[in-house]
Task: inverse folding
C-alpha cells in the first residue's frame, strides 16, 4: 500500500503529468523513487544490501523502510488531496441506534468485575481507523439483536485512552492491523479475541462481517444461555424481611388476644 499510493496518485494526476515532466525536479524524484524500489526488490542487487528484518531477507522492506514509505505516501496524498479525495475520505460516523456501553480507562475494569455472571463483548477501536468506522454499523446491529441482561456489548476508544490498549495488549499501530479488536469476557476474564495475533505481533487476517462475528463468538448460544440465566434470576424468590418473633403473652389472655 505504501508503494501503490504514490503510483495511484500519479495516475489521478495524469492531466498534469506533462507539466511535471517539463520540470527536472519532478522527473528526478520519480526516477529516484523507482530506483529505490528496484534496488531493494531486484535479487542480484538486493542480496548485498543490509536489512533489519527478523527473517534476514534482504530483498524485502524492513519496518524502518515501510514507515518511511508510508510517511512519504502521506505527503504525496496531502499534496494531491483533491485528486485523492475519493481514496482518503473516511466512511461517515455511525449515528444510528445501538445497545452499546462506552467505557473509559477507569470504568472498563469496574464494569467487567461488577457482575461476573454477565458476558461482555468489547470492541477496542480508534476513530481514525477506517476499518473501525466500517465495522461500527455492523457492531451496532449485533448489539440490537443480541443484547440482553446476561450478554452486553461495550466499546472503548484506545486512541483516546492509550493505557487501555497497553493493559489489554491491543496495538494501535497501523502496521499491526489490530484495530478493531473484539474481545469476549466471561467472569471478568478474557476468553477469546478476534483478530488473533501471531508471534510477530501482527493480526491474523480476519473479516469483520456480521456472519463471522456470530459464528466465531457463537452469539446464538451465548444469547440463549444469557436469556435462561436472566429468567432464572427473575424466578428466584425475593428475600423478604424476617417477621419479628412474637413476644411471650402473659397468662390470662385468650388465643384471640394472642
Result:
Amino acid at each position: 500500500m505504501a508503494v501503490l499510493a504514490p503510483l495511484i496518485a500519479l495516475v489521478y494526476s495524469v492531466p498534469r503529468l506533462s507539466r511535471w515532466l517539463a520540470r527536472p525536479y519532478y522527473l528526478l524524484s520519480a526516477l529516484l523513487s523507482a530506483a529505490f524500489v528496484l534496488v531493494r526488490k531486484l535479487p542480484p542487487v538486493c542480496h548485498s544490501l543490509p536489512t533489519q528484518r527478523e527473517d534476514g531477507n534482504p530483498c524485502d522492506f524492513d519496518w524502518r523502510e515501510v514507515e518511511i514509505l508510508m510517511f512519504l505516501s502521506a505527503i504525496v496524498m496531502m499534496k494531491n488531496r483533491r485528486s485523492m479525495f475519493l481514496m482518503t475520505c473516511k466512511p461517515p460516523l455511525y449515528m444510528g441506534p445501538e445497545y452499546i456501553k462506552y467505557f473509559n480507562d477507569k470504568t472498563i475494569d469496574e464494569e467487567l468485575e461488577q457482575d461476573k455472571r454477565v458476558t461482555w463483548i468489547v470492541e477496542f477501536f480508534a476513530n481514525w481507523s477506517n476499518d473501525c468506522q466500517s465495522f461500527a454499523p455492523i457492531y451496532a446491529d449485533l448489539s440490537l439483536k443480541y443484547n440482553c441482561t446476561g450478554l452486553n456489548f461495550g466499546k472503548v476508544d484506545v486512541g483516546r485512552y492509550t493505557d487501555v490498549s497497553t493493559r489489554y495488549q491491543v496495538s494501535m499501530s497501523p502496521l499491526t492491523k489490530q484495530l478493531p479488536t473484539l474481545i469476549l469476557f466471561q467472569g471478568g476474564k478474557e476468553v477469546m479475541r478476534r483478530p488473533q495475533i501471531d508471534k510477530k505481533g501482527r493480526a491474523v487476517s480476519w473479516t469483520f462481517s456480521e456472519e463471522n462475528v456470530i459464528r466465531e463468538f457463537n452469539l446464538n448460544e451465548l444469547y440463549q444461555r444469557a436469556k435462561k440465566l436472566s429468567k432464572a434470576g427473575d424466578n428466584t424468590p425475593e428475600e423478604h424481611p424476617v417477621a419479628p418473633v412474637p413476644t411471650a403473652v402473659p397468662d390470662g389472655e385468650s388465643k384471640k388476644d394472642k
Summary: The CA atoms of residues 145 and 180 lie 20 Å apart. The mean pLDDT is 78. Strands lie at 100-103, 119-125, 151-157, 181-186, 189-194.
